[in-house]
Amino acid sequence: MHIPGLTNLQPLGSGGFATVYRAHQVQLGRDVAVKIDNRVLGNERDRRRFLREAHAAARLSGHPNVVAVHDANITPQGMPYIVMELCTGGSLHDVLKQNGPLPAERVRQLGMQLADALAAAHAEGVLHRDIKPANILVDRYGTAKLADFGLAALLDAAGGSTVTRDALSPSYAPPEAFAMAAPTVTGDVYALAATLYDLLAGKPPRPVPWPIASFDHLGEVLRSPVPQVPGVPDEFHQILVRALHPDVSARTPTAAQLRDELRGAVQVAPPAPVVRAPVQRPPKTLPGPKKRWPVIAAAVVVAVAVGVGVWFAIPDGGGGATPTGGASTSGAAQKAADEKLPPPFLKACQTGYCVAEPACFRGMVSIGGQVTTARKAASCSDEHFWEAFAGEWFSGKIPKVDSDELLTAPEVAGVCTKAAMKANTRPTVDTSTWQLGVVGFEEGDRNYFLCMASPEEGGELTTSAFGSGG
To answer: TM segments (predicted)?
Structure first.
């Protein structure tokens, strides 16, 4: 790998999507760190966006608790990279592994410094999106610094052509992130508070088991009480509990307020109680295809369980289907009838099931490599990256794997094909170079998958390639 102006690149470590190198900057005669993302930014829009966010991150370099950004660019292969100061003390994740939890006063001091850095970033319009101990580095003088501001923006930039939320760290991410909510200031506040708690306890406040057993269980974990760490003063604990509130409206609203509370400058009100919202499920018996509201069940369960104000409903028709002619239908007969219905979004076609109407998606949610759900666009005239063209019921549970691996599953491989995509493409559209994807959904006690497609070169779409209408 050749980076202009740098020599002697030596790998320091790698994660899911990037590799960090130690390198020598010839012009200034100093060692630096280079983080190279292995995802390719395939179009000019994404490249401009990355550089714009990297420039914004560079403006934060004067803050003593932000890792300084020296340069940012894109390799000839299309991979973005950032050149930054070399922090030889490792990360706070390393410190935790080597030394265990830190004293409460030390964590409080760290919290004030890091919250101040985060407040400065927010004042510049920059969100971090992925605060955790591994993204807080320690320089040779022992100063803790927030890292990865610039590369955090890649989650959305690369999401146009692959998936979104790729690097979500489940145990530090705010609950609303699991429902595909856009990143916000309060999400960063939650992640910083979760990080401070980890430094005190040696584990996150709400460890999220991965892969998740069910979305019901995920909802319970995300709303569970935050245990008090022995030896941590009550006031400090209450500050963290408020910043970790699962409901955005009850959470500490800004990093500046969190900083001031840690300084003792703001009186901390007791945190609002967490209301355990019951998990709402669609009825097991549903109206026919024309009356069924498209339900992304995974997103429904998470959204309702964590209380982020997202609601999907079954339209008029009551709790179950009403048989034609008013005759009663036995449970067995109704189940048999339901099994003949196509999955949501789909209708019977010559090639199997194809989309009944255009179904367009803003992005897929991927956590730890597993695609968990997708966010549907209100209309295909709205900006979107993926479009469904076919699908099928899935026997058993959807495997907890990424989209590429799910495409190779026997039940999926025969349905989500280039031939099926071509057969369902509208005559005026050329999808010959589009890439395939797939995402699984829950529908009551059944599972199904949708075959997705997206232009290989990336970029946002505002028209539909499949189904009738636009």
So the answer is: 293-314
